[in-house]
Specification:
Two copies of one chain form a homodimer. Chain A is built from eight helices and 17 strands. The first copy, chain A, has helices at about 15-25, 40-45, 55-70, 140-145, 185-200, 220-230, 280-290, 325-350; strands at about 5-10, 30, 75, 80-90, 90-100, 100-105, 110, 115-120, 135-140, 160-170, 205-210, 235-245, 250-255, 260-265, 270-275, 275, 315. A seven-stranded mixed sheet of chain A has the order 9-15-10-11-12-13-14. A five-stranded parallel sheet of chain A has the order 3-2-1-7-17, with helices on both faces. The model of chain A has no long low-confidence stretch (mean pLDDT about 95).
Chain lengths: ~350, ~350
């Protein structure tokens, strides 16, 4: 008889949805989360609001976590990490370190939902000066400022008059090896641009982009209102460097629509950093023996009609562990992964029964 | 005691995944499909291959359908339509017309997966001449030609020397009321462009676009190879009209990168038509009393963390019935919807027990 428990690794949006799905389907689930809290990157990085509907992530993800905790046979292990995994489907044996103590967990199936990390703009994109100039920040830094209701120039604590976003930092970039598009940055930057314009009505906000990837409803939910209602100024152009000049930042590059060089002084520069696999995604994929693509994300074995199966039976992946994903992708793949995990137990029971 | 059966309406990629999920979770499922076959629009419209991995849709969707049919307690009703629905969760009573005969089906939950239709480029986009000039075709027409290995100018049966795609036909267009981006057309057009270049190595292929929305891995899977390996020529520009000229088609518009008007003779013009709700989606949403957005797609009640719940308990939606969706979206939301449907039965059983 197969072990009927599912272990979900990662307690962000995808992991929460996966664990909730398992529990709602009546199977025991153990959620292993490395951090001391649930909710994942939106909570850890202090996002002000979620794209595109602007809900408070603490409220929305907190409600999901409370609902999960209220279901029968749910165990949530915080500050915990999977240290080893042996066996095969449907009989995996995991060793989990829970607050410094080692503990054995038997599982019939595993869902890997270990997410992404923001691209570090210090590494190979020094021309933007993220670690040199205090008024160059990243998307998640501005989220945090918006959350605190305190959008300022870090250098002097004054509200910025002119702000720009530079898109595709760490994405669509062959030189650094991230050829993929990170999918969400156009939407997230535009959402933040709207929030800045609301917080600082006298500010001017620019977005320098290659293509605005406002797919699906984001076009009408974010992109039209950003331009028409909030007067965010979109400039198709490539920024080649950011330099200090007279106490401000000079953004240099090419306006590709106008076909001419541009030099614009800014008070705050926001780097729209892309998604990379989190250290947890890299480590857990390796530990579980799950195939990764060349970027380090988990490789879906049979896309597009199966988005969550991996090369190992009984192990499924969800959310940004699989690559760039928006919150809706995380919810949907989380649900499919949870369901597939439960279904794999039933199949195993029939096969072995 | 709640009825334990789930009815899935629609047998395309999302409906197949939803029904498979229900069946794999051990609950009885009835799949109601209006057409005489399963697989949905990729089969009905004779797609040559699926984006981005180029599998044969008949093989891939056929395998899903066979797997579904092999599972216990699965009933597939072809050439069938839901005529009425009464009751509430978890006790819906549906009347289904099966090959002309009326039949009652009791269900505990319903998944709506009735999909999309291609925008009709005759209605408000006459400037492209879809119904006037035989050599103006739509994305799905070219799919069909590619499937037959016969890419020709319909006017004379000769292979085209110069081909262009016009993006955003029926999408991102406020005048016709479709403000949303249809999400998949950039990827699908680029995939077809690659296939044309492979089929006709002497051809020149152009894509006229506003923004190339090659999100996520499509950037490296399709967009880079289209340009570098297959020499597809991307032109950022707006096409204002297509006119007959000396037996060819004159494409007139503005090259927005070069900032100048353009007039290019083409042998074949492909309109990258967007997604609209299918007649089935409009009709079933109305019949089931499920909220629709202003475009007629089913409105998800609690996005982004719940992508498939509707305003009616026990009724879930999946795939392109919810709006523009790629195949991965269809698979993921199909799985979540199937799981939620099954979970809603368990909850109902507990509540009523």
């Amino acid at each position: 008889m197969a072990n009927q428990r599912v272990v979900v690794i990662g307690g962000g949006p995808a992991g929460l949805r996966a664990a909730t799905t398992v529990a709602e389907l009546g199977r025991p689930v153990v959620l292993v989360e490395q951090r001391g809290f649930l909710g994942g990157t939106p909570i850890a990085e202090r996002y002000a609001s979620m794209t595109p509907y602007l809900e408070d992530p603490e409220a929305a993800l907190g409600a999901m976590a409370s609902h999960l905790a209220s279901l029968p046979d749910v165990e949530i292990l915080l500050s915990s990490e999977v240290r080893s995994c042996s066996g095969d489907a449907p009989a995996f044996s995991l060793e989990v370190e829970v607050a410094g103590q080692s503990r054995s967990v038997e599982a019939g199936a595993i869902v890997l939902a270990t997410g992404f990390q923001h691209f570090d703009p210090g590494r190979e994109t020094q021309m933007y000066g993220y670690y040199e100039y205090p008024d160059v920040v990243a998307l998640q830094d501005l989220e945090s400022m918006l959350k605190d209701g305190n959008v300022v120039r870090p250098s002097n604590g004054e509200p910025p008059g002119r702000i720009c976003f530079i898109q595709c930092v760490g994405s669509r970039d062959r030189q650094i090896g991230n050829e993929y598009c990170s999918k969400v940055c156009c939407g997230v930057a535009s959402k933040e641009a709207i929030e800045v314009r609301q917080a600082l009505p006298d500010s001017e906000v620019f977005i320098f982009y290659i293509d605005m990837r406002m797919y699906g409803y984001w076009e009408s939910q974010i992109y039209w209102p950003a331009q028409e209602k909030h007067h965010v100024q979109y400039v198709k152009g490539i920024v080649s460097e950011v330099l200090p000049r007279d106490g401000r930042l000079l953004v240099r590059g090419e306006d590709t629509t106008m076909g001419r060089p541009m030099e614009i002084p800014m008070d705050l520069v926001v780097l729209s950093v892309g998604m990379e696999p989190s250290p947890g995604t890299r480590a857990m994929a390796k530990l579980l023996g799950v195939a990764q693509n060349k970027y380090g994300f988990v490789e879906a074995a049979r896309p597009p009609l199966d988005t969550v199966g991996t090369n190992r039976p009984g192990i499924f992946a969800a959310g940004a562990a699989l690559g760039p994903a928006d919150l809706e992708d995380c919810a949907s793949t989380g649900g499919l992964a949870g369901a597939r995990a439960v279904a794999s137990l039933a199949t195993a029971a029939v096969t072995s029964g």
